[in-house]
């Protein structure tokens, strides 16, 4: 198989930021439509499961549990697909994983469940659980598709780990800045110039951008959901199609595949 030059570092940063906005968008739409069920944030769903267990409310427990199972299943199957692709030197694995995600979002967008005030009415119907599973599975697929940008591990569908890493990088960057300022004769302009190339400063800026993109995506998702209901998910589908096209010319997941294989 002829090797094609993979997407560069700058391209992967843009991809990660954009997919994070997609994750925030989808999570917000799902949270509103599915009545407080996250389709990407499994920490929130796990808390819901624990609350339901504490209240002995086993009927309501099934809603967040369905999302957790679907998310983990989607992520696991995608990891398996990426590992198999790496062993067979398939470069454009992101084409297939993002296509699966886009298809699932289209199916959700085309659904016509009974709704009231923007929320699905019957929270215990087969249709409801199918929609929860569709959206959570899609987010699991996206999570597993791209998890590494350079040496950083990032997740494009939730930001708890991102904020943790941001805090760590920011702390190291602050101490680096202090040590630079403490050096005699070091001008502020020199510190700023050096900071642009300093590893922890760059990582902190990137991780902060990831968080901001998630918030912006969630805000746009909420705005779109109020106007177009479930059809608002056609917007992230268009974004995914763009990245599928990019992957055909400049593979997004080559380095990701190598990491998985190693």
Helix-strand blueprint:
Elements: H1 9-33, H2 42-54, H3 58-87, H4 93-109, E1 115-116, E2 119-120, H5 126-145, E3 148-149, E4 152-153, H6 160-182, H7 188-195, H8 199-228, H9 234-249, H10 254-261
Antiparallel strand pairs: 1-2, 3-4
Helix pairs in contact: 1-5, 1-8, 1-9, 2-3, 3-5, 3-10, 4-5, 4-9, 6-8
Number of helical regions: 10
Q: How do the strands of the widest beta sheet line up side by side?
A: 1-2
**Helix content, binned percent:** over 70%
Distance between the termini: 20 Å
Radius of gyration, CA atoms, in whole angstroms: 20 Å
Query: What is the average of the pLDDT values?
Result: 88
Return the string of H and E elements. HHHHEEHEEHHHHH
- The total strand number stands at 4
Structural class: mainly alpha
The geometry reads as globular
Main beta-sheet annotation: 2 strands, antiparallel
* Strand coverage percent: under 5%
Q: Regions with pLDDT < 50 over 5+ consecutive residues?
A: none
Give structural notes.
- By secondary structure, the chain is mostly helical.
- It is 73% helix and 3% strand.
- It contains ten helices and four strands.
- The protein has helices at residues 9-33, 42-54, 58-87, 93-109, 126-145, 160-182, 188-195, 199-228, 234-249, 254-261, and strands at residues 115-116, 119-120, 148-149, 152-153.
- The strands form two sheets. A two-stranded antiparallel sheet has the order 1-2. It has a two-stranded antiparallel sheet with strand order 3-4.
- β1 (115-116) and β2 form a beta hairpin.
- α1 (9-33) runs antiparallel to α5 and α6 (160-182) packs antiparallel against α8 (199-228).
- The two termini are 20 Å apart.
- The model has no long low-confidence stretch (mean pLDDT 88).
């Amino acid at each position: 198989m002829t090797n094609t030059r993979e997407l560069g570092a700058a391209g992967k940063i843009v991809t990660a930021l954009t997919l994070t906005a997609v994750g925030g968008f989808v999570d917000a739409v799902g949270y509103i439509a599915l009545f407080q069920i996250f389709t990407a944030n499994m920490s929130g769903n796990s808390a819901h499961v624990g609350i339901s267990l504490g209240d002995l409310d086993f009927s309501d427990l099934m809603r967040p549990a369905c999302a957790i199972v679907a998310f983990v299943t989607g992520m696991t199957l995608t990891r398996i697909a990426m590992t198999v692709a790496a062993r067979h030197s398939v470069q454009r694995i992101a084409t297939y994983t993002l296509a699966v995600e886009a298809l699932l979002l289209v199916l959700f967008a085309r659904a016509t469940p009974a709704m009231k005030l923007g929320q699905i009415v019957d929270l215990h119907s087969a249709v409801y659980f199918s929609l929860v599973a569709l959206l959570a599975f899609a987010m699991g697929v996206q999570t597993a598709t791209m998890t590494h940008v350079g040496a950083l591990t990032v997740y494009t569908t939730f930001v708890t780990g991102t904020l943790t890493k941001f805090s760590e990088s920011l702390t190291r960057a602050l101490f680096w800045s202090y040590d630079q300022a403490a050096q005699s004769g070091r001008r502020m302009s020199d510190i700023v110039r050096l900071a642009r190339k300093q590893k922890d400063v760059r990582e902190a800026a990137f991780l902060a951008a990831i968080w901001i993109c998630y918030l912006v995506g969630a805000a746009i998702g909420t705005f779109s959901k109020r106007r177009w209901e479930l059809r608002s998910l056609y917007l992230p589908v268009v974004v995914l199609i763009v990245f599928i096209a990019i992957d055909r010319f400049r593979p997004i997941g080559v380095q990701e595949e190598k990491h998985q294989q190693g």
